[in-house]
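Quick bug: LD-carboxypeptidase output formatted oddly.
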Amino acid sequence: MAIRPPLLQRGDTLGLVTPGSPLDANIINARVQTLRDMGFNIVFGRHVYSYEGIVAAPARQRAEDVMNMFRDPRVKMILPTRGGTGVQTILPYLDYEVIRENPKMISGYSDITVLLNSLYQFSNLITFHSLMLIDFRLDTPAYNFNQFFDATSTLISPRAIQNPPDMPLMSLVRGNVTGPIVGGNMTSLVNTLGTPFEIDTKGKILFLEETHSPTNMIFRYLTQLSMSGKFQDCLGIIMGECTNCLVSYGTTYEDLIHDWLVPLGKPLMVNLATGHGFYKAAIPIGANVNLNTIDNTLTVLEPTVSS
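Here's what came back:
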């Protein structure tokens, strides 16, 4: 069983880090004020506001900011400001044993996907494919906040992951499987293949989502994931949205799912609200879930935080 981090409560301290691309200081400050208004205290990593082109700071420095938050006894949760590009470059500089000994929750999506899965894979820590600092704004849908706090601030178990009412989950291949859930942004995960941080899908339920990639690029990603055995190893597959993904050669994202994934015969659910979409379900990476594509349900079977 994976390690559950301590639950989050109002009045707790959040540690902000920028592990990938930089974010405008005005946006950071506005989102920090929202968190303070919600009752949280904030501590800042040294390079939260840094800017060095594509990334906020050199990889070692961004990694040290993350490690400092795990070591800081004041910090209950580590919250990346954004994803962007470059998160993968910090992975070799993290101390996964120190992280294992100081379990804390961390949340994010997009390029943060590789950090979430690596912390589960190498530190056995449940992490959260959910909100980042940029999402803490007044116009964020209530659904997103409800999902985030249900996952991070309650001991609810079992917890059904449900889409908003106007966005139904759909199942394309019937089945019923249970196992740890892994995955996230397709681009980020494909970039780990052939590295020491390659995602492990064996005996796990794999979920994927993508943004701003034309379908000919999605075709390449699915090819790479298939040829590296990731679909063959997994128990079942959940496909989230492909937001702002242009159609190439008359082939849609849905066409690719039918062509590539339906023939595998594994339980297959689609249309999960997560990642880059307007609505964002909270997916606990490393937690045991039940994927039932007969009843069309996705259920987290255990508490994802500890009291």
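Actually, after a second look the formatting is fine. The domain at 13-140 is CATH 3.40.50.10740 (Rossmann fold). Closing.
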